[in-house]
Amino acid sequence: MYRIGIDVGGTFTDFVLVNTEGGSIAFHKVPSTPDDPSRAIATGILEMLELNRVDPAQVAYVGHGTTVATNMVIEGRGVPTGLLTTKGFRDVLAIGRQTRPSLYDWSVRKPEPLVERYRRLEVDERLTKDGTPLVAPDLKAVEALVVALRDSGVEAVAVGFLHSYRNPAHERAVRDVIKRVAPKLYVSISSEVVAEFREFERISTTVLNAYVGPPTQKYLHRLRERIAESGIQVEPLTFHSNGGLLPVRTVEELPVLTCLSGPAAGVIGSARIGAEIGETEIITFDVGGTSTDVSLITRGRPQFTSSRLVAGHPVRMPMVDIHVIGAGGGSIARLDDAGALKVGPTSAGAMPGPISYLRGGTEVTLTDANIVLGRLNPVALLEGRMKIDRGLAVEAIQKQIAGPLGISVEEAAFGILKIATANMSRAIRSVSTEHGHDLGKFALFSFGGAGSLHSAEVAEECGLRKIVIPREPGTLCARGVLLSDLSRDYVRTTLVFAKPEVWPDVVRLGADMAATGREWLASGTIPGSSQQLLFTLDARYKGQSHYIAVHLDALDEDALDTFMRKFEHAHTEQFGYSLDGREIEIVNVRVKAVCHVPKDDSVVVSREGSLDRARIGTRLVYFGEACGWVETPVYQRMLLPADVPFEGPTVVEEMSSTTIILPGQSAELDGFGNIHITLRG
Fold first, then answer.
1. How far apart are CA 426 and CA 431, in angstroms?
2. Residue 517 class from Cβ within 10 Å (0-12 exposed, 13-18 middle, 19+ buried)?
3. Which of the residues 100, 250, 348, 609 has an alpha carbon 20 to 30 A from that of 137?
């Protein structure tokens, strides 16, 4: 049987096909179709199955990562949405928080709320802070509000009441009214999207869920239809932002869970491959067509966060902590009003793409610069399937950059490369040195279609000493989907102090949430899988506003002392001190339900062959003013033998990516086919 992993990117859609019986693995890429991502998925699946002579009926598993929901928010393509909230809280989305991330930048503007004020309506209801009903909603009055929203043209309604994280009864009653009065409306209630305190973040997340809900449902419906038409008899699973997979029905209810879905898969895949080769301290470096995504892995564990911004809107969900900047192969290079060279954050995307891709692009991109410098194949990419015109890129760089600046074309192209390198390096420092980590202890795990093109320069600028590049790095996010498990996260705010007399209440809450998790697991069990429940308590010292996560093997009557000890240790590790005798407050109880999917071991590569056999030619590559143009050997990666070192400068080509090894650097393949690059000391 076969398993397929898919990652939908801004420029390309990537595929990995694994034979669970023979152990073989195949990789494939097709251009993305932003107007309907399911088209590229269907096209790529059919092409890949045909190329590898696989009967669709033999496919037993399809998982895919996508940023469809994220792109809808960024591009403002969600549906007209209404909000029903507690009387007096109509403007919570507009007021937000007093945090100012760019305090001295007068040009920064907060994004407009996704719900216009006339569609934010108040319900006269109230719960006390412990969830006790104080004022019940008048359901007749709610009917009138629902009719008003429906007649205003909304397609989705978010319901977010004060303190509903303690007691969902009022929200559920209002949802029932909406379903009865306006059954075609998509409904999200905050107590089911994120049952946490802090009403601004909770309501913002619920609104986002409603905003992207109907389009996500349509996308998933088309995807299921297209996959079924291909002859595959299983429904696709969708990767979510916290590093696991979800069945379609869960994503339809909670599409906000998939924000940053694809990049998270790359981090999970990096952690698993890193464990395989003994690398536990990793900085992931994922460079695609439109963005660079970086993340930190310490002691073999990815870093997680409970909130982040998507296009300026808070999302309160557990997710892999990824820092994203607008720097990718499609990033546009231009001269600003002052005549200075800028690269990104705007991108040429999949269409029209770089000028050299022959799709009508007119603006110089980072990819065009790499083609002009000889770093990318100047004739064709994707093993010859994508034709390239270097001459168009040379002409455009001369006209748009080099001519106005009075420099040569190669100097202009290399300048584009240096600016992109500086931008990427800042992103790496933001997740490492700015948090007290010594970069010299980390390996740069480079992937994405353009990651291995830039990792050598980025590593040198950041002071890293080692780079690891997995097989077919341009498809690692798709491979990460196959290295992940099904999982779903549950959270409830409790706000109690960690004392023996209240600990049984915390245990009971955890048991209730665990029962919900087991019910979800039972509904989507995969043959051959095992199940697990993971417990986490968010906690803080009395008087603090921030909290830290404490992971527990079990949440039972005997776990209080273990929790207290782990909290003190975690606080000391994160902040450098602990407060003896200060009371500890438990803020949230979290349960992660995990269905462990059987995974495939990495294929060991052949140690036979030689560098001479792998060498497919040479070409001139520009390495900056110090080295100039150098006649550089070009190797076919799949022919490189393991455990045979080779020196830079070198170009290594494969279907999904090109690796550049600089003069003075050395490289070697390990037994699993990963390239290890060692930087000069």
1. 9
2. buried
3. 250
